[in-house]
Amino acid sequence: MKYQKPKGTADIIPPFSNEWQFVEQTARETFKLYNYSEVRTPIFENFEVFSRSAGDTSDIVTKEMYDFHDKGDRHIALRPEGTAGVVRSFVENKLYGPEHAKPVKQYYMGPMFRYERPQSGRLREFHQIGVEAFGSDSPRIDVETIAMAIDFLHRLKVDGTKLVINSLGDLDTRKNYRQALIDYLEPHFDELSEDSKERLHKNPLRVLDSKDANDQKLVEDAPSILDFLTPTAKEHFDVVKETLDQLGIDFVIDSNMVRGLDYYNHTIFEIMVNNKALGHGDVTICAGGRYNGLVEELGGPECSGMGFGLGVERLLLILNQELKDELQKNDLDFYVVAIGNKVKNAAFKLVQDLRSFNYRADQDYLDRKPKGQFKSADKYHAKYVLTLGESELEQGTVNFKNMETGVEKVIKNDNLEQEIKSLTEE
């Protein structure tokens, strides 16, 4: 039997795993500057965590969830996105309590699962990096979150980003807009897609998010939610726009953007790029928004939230090629060649010494002859080779060779670290 990975999954093998490590490390370093700390939640949760948060009309719940009943007949789901699990953790661990500094800022990274047609940059097992900030109603938290996402992408040298924003307003805004949207769409009911017909009275805003081409035409002339913002919601959005302007962050307003999850309100945003690796036109690589009712929905007190998520696979497709080439080099610093059985223990210690000096080092473990060991050094792209034979062992020395320049030098073991650092810094 030939064993293969499941459809819609991928093996992340060297040297490509270096790119993943770079993206993850850059995320950690960037988010730390904004006072975010990492949270790790289970890969699977009770089904209700996602159905309550995403909304029972969302594609995630109705079409894409990997869910099953376990041996205890518990309804379990593999996480399709990161926010719901982080909110559940926030509530369960009572991080809303007065002993915790506010806002509580957390980030996460890890695998997510959705059953959908696999395509470039979108697999059934995919990876997300995301952030959540709990406990502040300030529109400036919205802007800080957006600015942090843009900062992260700039540090990855992602060019040509476009920020698109909208406001979904507060509860009164959505209540009034909901009815206006139903009134507009009902005369076109027979023209709507089957999904949109089902959603029209449950959650008409989701019709705006439809991928059906005819639905998209129908909503082009739909009323704008921005015309229904309450004074409070309008003031919140005005501060967001003014603060973005103050930071010199360009943005475009799209009043039909609603995002694919039901828990958003007030500010929502998407960061897009136009890159051939993702197809034609602008493609979203990062998205998020404010969700002031989600903590309550999952059993917590009234507490606001703001966050974003981005797909790592999609991000890797558009990384700067020069950067990717550099990350994939995977070069070894030192390879130690041992000549003769008597020097094997000494060679082993030499490799360990090099590692203690913070060099990436390796040696032969297949009892190959010197010629075979030098071939291995070439395959590992070793920058330097140290050769140790019986004569070097007796004299307390080792032979150093720079593989790029061909320069060789005999160095003494009693001053090994200093001499090696001197030679590698030349």
UniProtKB/TrEMBL annotation:
Its EC number is 6.1.1.21. L-histidine binds at E81, G82, T83, R114, Q128, E132, R259, Y263, Y264. Pfam families: HGTP_anticodon, tRNA-synt_His. Keywords: Aminoacyl-tRNA synthetase, ATP-binding, Cytoplasm, Ligase, Nucleotide-binding, Protein biosynthesis. Its main location: cytoplasm. Residues 20-322 form the Aminoacyl-transfer RNA synthetases class-II family profile domain. Homodimer. Belongs to the class-II aminoacyl-tRNA synthetase family. This is Histidine--tRNA ligase. It comes from Pediococcus argentinicus. The lineage of its organism: Bacteria, Bacillati, Bacillota, Bacilli, Lactobacillales.
